[in-house]
Amino acid sequence: MGIALVTPFQADGSIDFDALDRLIEYQIQGGADFLCIMGTTAETPTLSREEKRLLKEHFVERVAGRVPLLMGCGGNNTAAILEELQTENWKGIDGILSVCPYYNKPTQEGLYQHFAAIAKASPVPVVLYNVPGRTGVNMTAETTLRLAREFENIVAIKEASGNITQMDDIIKNKPKHFDVISGDDGITFPLITLGAVGVISVIGNALPAEFSRMVRLALKGEYNTSLSIHHKFTELFKLLFVDGNPAGVKAMLSEMGLIQNVLRLPLIPTRLTTMEKISQIVRELGY
Questions:
Q1: N or C end of the chain, less CB within 10 A?
Q2: pLDDT category of residue 284 using cuts at 50, 70 and 90
Q3: Which residues are identified as catalytic?
Q4: Helix-then-strand count for the chain, H and E
Q5: Which of 42, 53, 9, 71 is nearest to 205 (CA)?
Q6: How many CB atoms lie within 10 A of CB 203?
Q7: Tell me, what's the pLDDT at 222?
């Protein structure tokens, strides 16, 4: 299980590196297999270039090789991504997570050419990220499989299309070196039963031990026990996303005393009614 790690902020909006260190240790002790840094949940669009550089250096130094680091590196300007891949220091980063280009809505051939260029330029393995609810374009199974077959350094896809049939098609027809990873906590269990290898999780920020146990049990074929854990979190899955991500999980982390409940505009904290429900669940879980 990977964790789509949040970026903690102080009350003045600056990055809270002390809270980040607490989170890193909490994730590693909780059994996270890898950390996904500077992705959607990290509010990366609101980070400056200098902040991203500082965060990358901080992660590499603090994690110190204890778990792999998968770093977000994507966008809708292919040339800018290639420049970043060719000029930045990637020491200590084990792979990149590259999202489908957003807003400009490329064709399937455009998506293929975009990721082909990234694969040719990347000094580290590439994980594709398909999340049409955010990008406005869905990468089809055909395009994903074309990329997987033609580039050995494209090693996986984080699938968050919500289309189980599409995901199953990829799992059924993928090459051996390529894996499918759930991009949605709520469908992780069923997707693993189809052949996915895990999840890049949001809820894992708050409950790494519990959620990683569900994933490991499912991967071992112990479906009944894993399903019971999945059902335990059903209400929480909805609560954490009803006011957007990462507003829900940041509210939960703040209730647990791990971070301050601060987001950067245009994102804002959860509504009071949502916060009250999250607080109740945190109490029931014993935190």
A1: C
A2: confident
A3: 129, 158
A4: 13, 8
A5: 42
A6: 25
A7: 97
- C-alpha–C-alpha distance, residues 75 and 66, integer Å: 28
Overall fold of domain 2-222: TIM Barrel (3.20.20)
- List strand residue ranges (DSSP E) for the chain, in order: 2-4, 34-37, 69-72, 95-99, 126-130, 154-159, 179-182, 198-201
Helix (H) or strand (E) holding 144: helix 141-150
Pairwise CA distance, residues 258 & 47, whole Å: 21
Q: What is the domain partition of the chain in residue ranges? A: 2-222
What is the per-residue pLDDT across 5-63, written as a single tens digit (0 to 9) for each?
999 999 999 999 999 999 999 999 999 999 999 999 999 999 999 999 999 999 999 99
* Both tokens assigned to 8: 């903690």
Q: Is the peptide bond before 246 cis (omega within 30 degrees of 0)?
A: yes
Question: Is the pLDDT assigned to residue 282 strictly greater than 90?
Answer: no
pLDDT of residue 285: 82
Residues sharing a CB contact under 8 Å with residue 284, sequence separation 6 or more, in sequence order: none
Q: Whole-angstrom Cα distance, residue 145 to residue 113?
A: 14
DSSP track, 78-96: HHHHHHHHHHS--TT--EE
Report how far apart, in Å, the C-alpha atoms of 96 and of each of 58, 193, 217 are: 17, 26, 27
d(CA 211, CA 217): 10
Cα separations (Å) of 215 from 151, 181, 264, 274?
Answer: 28, 11, 31, 27
pTM of the predicted model, to two decimals?
Answer: 0.96
Which residue type is seen at 270?
T
Q: Which of 10, 88, 36, 12 is nearest to 199 (CA)?
A: 36
